[in-house]
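Hello Y.,

Per our agreement to keep a running log of every chain we model this quarter, I'm adding this entry. I've kept the format consistent with earlier entries: sequence first, then predicted structure.
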Amino acid sequence: MDRRGLTAEERAGAFERYRRFQTHDMPIADDERALFDWASKQTYIALGNMLTGAAMLGIDSCAIEGMEYAVVEKILAEDGLLDPEHYGLSVAATFGYRVRDISPKPRRDASETVIWAE
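Predicted structure for the entry above:
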């Protein structure tokens, strides 16, 4: 809100919209786990854009969920990159350039998986 230069009145309106969303539209304010799960879903919106943007620049990327979250959070906290009292790890991603070509993964043909609704 500071970066947007919102006035006190505009801030109050924004907080009210957030409160209403979290208590009425999607009642998650009183359930810490539900709130974290919703926030995690929001990270995937940004993640999808990051992975797509990287691909358009010729950079390989991979979303990662299969990790020891507590260990990664500890490493990030030790490096001053995460305050575990206020934030939690949702997903991670790697970015880089491949050293060698990778062989195509065996996939079913799209016609075996996709059903088009008209």
